[in-house]
Design a protein that fits this description.
about 120 residues, alpha+beta, about 20% strand, globular
Length: about 120
């Protein structure tokens, strides 16, 4: 029986997340979610189960509302790096979920790295 696109996505997401848990027990995780219209990212402390910082293309302050392109992803990546610095977090693991590290997800990661994040 053939796997649907959704099944493949879920398998990829679980594979990525399980590898992160093995490699980084108790560390920070930078989790990305991309929809057809927006992109968002959260810095999560898995030990305490708390979101430390977040950024999204839905925020009016970033000036990219309604745009789902690489420019929007870059601004969101820069914003999360700035907010992580305020929270005194510089190192984390990048959790791309089931999304391929390509295009918008890669642009977000590169912008966060330029902002001072290490992953």
């Amino acid at each position: 029986m053939a796997n649907s696109k959704r099944d493949l996505f879920v398998k990829r997401r679980l594979r990525v997340r399980n590898k992160l848990r093995k490699r980084n027990p108790g560390g920070m995780r930078l989790s990305v979610h991309r929809s057809n219209k927006n992109i968002s990212v959260q810095l999560i402390d898995d030990v305490n189960g708390v979101t430390v910082a977040s950024a999204s293309s839905l925020e009016k302050s970033l000036g990219v509302v309604g745009k789902n392109n690489i420019e929007a992803a870059t601004k969101v990546g820069a914003a999360i790096a700035e907010r992580a610095k305020k929270a005194k977090v510089t190192e984390c693991y990048f959790d791309r979920g089931g999304f391929l590290f390509h295009g918008k997800v890669k642009a977000l990661a590169d912008a966060a790295r330029e902002g001072g994040m290490k992953f």
